[in-house]
Every structure is written in structure tokens, then in C-alpha cells.
Amino acid sequence: MILALRALGVGDLATATPALRALRAAHPDRELVLAAPGWLAPLVDLVGGVDRLVPTDGLGRPDPALRTPRIAVNLHGRGPESHRLLARTRPGRLLAYANPEAGHHDGPDWRADEHEVERWCRLLDWYGIPADRADLDLRRPPPGGAPAGATVLHPGSKVAAKRWPPGRFAALARQLAARGHRVVLTGSPDERATAQRIADAAGLPADAVLAGRTDLAGLAALVAYARLVVSGDTGVAHLATGYRTASVVLFGPVSPAQWGPPPARGRHRALWAGAGYRPGWDGVGSHPALTAIGVDEVLAAVDEAERAVRVSGAVAA
Fold this sequence. Notes:
The chain has twelve helices and ten strands. The protein has 317 residues and is of the alpha/beta class.
């Protein structure tokens, strides 16, 4: 058994896709087991290559099903907690970043400013397992009941600092709808009230509010067949990258150099006002790097992303 630990969220799993596929390719005859939250199961299926998901929330005592893997791979963090969890499974070998505090002296040094995709590919490269950084595409699910060709606005985030102001999402939704976009609003059940306020302010119909009404599989299908996605730096943005759906991603406080879409993919645009807005921030509400991004700037990025889609379609034809 090859055990990989990634007990985090949607964007974390999506950015680990190249590393997981590299492990699959390096060990085609071994069972590849992923320790990750159970609710991510639909996305794990879309990543492909994983034989079994063992539900793992947090870094407590490992599930007995994870015992004695031939190789354990820490795709979760730098340690020491994640290193120690994997050490308790008694692996034949641990592939991880060096962390003397956890008793692990092997592995490369951690780089705090590295892109999340590069981070895990570099780890595997160090251990002689080649990984393709561009291998981010996800399997396309059946459309199901998802409306095809919608423009998805995702105003929420678990982190308040990463939320662009709702009033700006409302202004954006209004202008996109006037341009002929079928705008829908997504989010968690807790974000439904915010999505409804945005829809009301933008004059959108009642069925435009999908927040709290889609499970992960449904959200993936919605993004896979969408016209466009506009969101903050959150999991939905990584789904758009995985499906090559045109997207505009609004960053703050974290730089797109660490979590953004690949620059080589022209149909994705990352907007960030830069690190200069960090000093003096009181930590309340949207980060200043986000509030510095205006609606007109987002609309211009939408035009650029959609133009790139048209150009790539013409080239393919």
C-alpha cells in the first residue's frame, strides 16, 4: 500500500492532483490510499488513480486501516504533526519534507513562498518520482441537473479576509446579466443568505441562488459545464482550473504566485493588488488587497478570459 496524506479541502486536493497521479504512475501495481476528509469522495473520484479513500479529519490518531504502508507520503504539510501521524502508521519509508523536530531528517527543505502545486511535485522529484506540474485536469462528470453554460459567481470563503465585498459581487452580477450571462450564485448553506442578498440587489431571479443547494459532485458538474467562474481564492477556483473553465480569481491576502491558476492557461485571470496593502490592516473583513479590486477591473478580466476561450477554440478548429 502507498499511503498519501492530504486531510484538507477542495483546493488542497485539486492542487495535489499532479502529485497523486505521479504516485500512481510510479507504483502502478500497488494500492494507492488517500487519507483525506470523507466528504471529498466525489472529487477524489474525479482526480482518478486513487484506489481507496480513508476518511481522515485532522491530524489525530490514524485510522487502523492505514497501518504499515510500504510508503507513506506527506502531501499535507511540513510537520511535525503530519509527520508524526504518518510515523504512527509504521511505514516502510516516509517521503516528506525534512523536519528534525519530528525526527525526519530526510527530504528537501520547505519553501514558504512556493506555489502549492510545485511544492508537492518538488517533494516527489526529490525522491526520484517525476511529476508533471501541468497535469491538473479533472475528469468531467456527467452534467446531471447542473445548468450548462452558466456564469458562476462564488462570493464566499471559509476565510473572511478572502471575501470580496458582497456589494461588488452584486454590481458585477447585474452587469454580467445585462450582457446576457446566466448568472448563478454558489456557496455553502451558511452562505445562502449572503448569496440571496446579492441576487436581490442584482435583480436576479430566485432560481439563480444555488448556495446551499449543491453537493460537491453537483458543484463540480456546474463548474465543469459553466461559461465562466468568478470567485475568491477558494476551492471553486481550482475546480475551474481543473476543467479549463474560463475564470477570474480575486486574491488577497495570499498571492496568486502561491495558489493561482497556471499562467500558461490564458483563460484564467488572477487579480491581486499586491503585498503593499498588508501593513496596518486590522484583520477584520475583506483584506485590503481584495477591496482594492474594482468591478470594472473584474469585468475587463472577464473579457480577457472569454477572449482567450474564443481564440483557443478557433485554434483547435
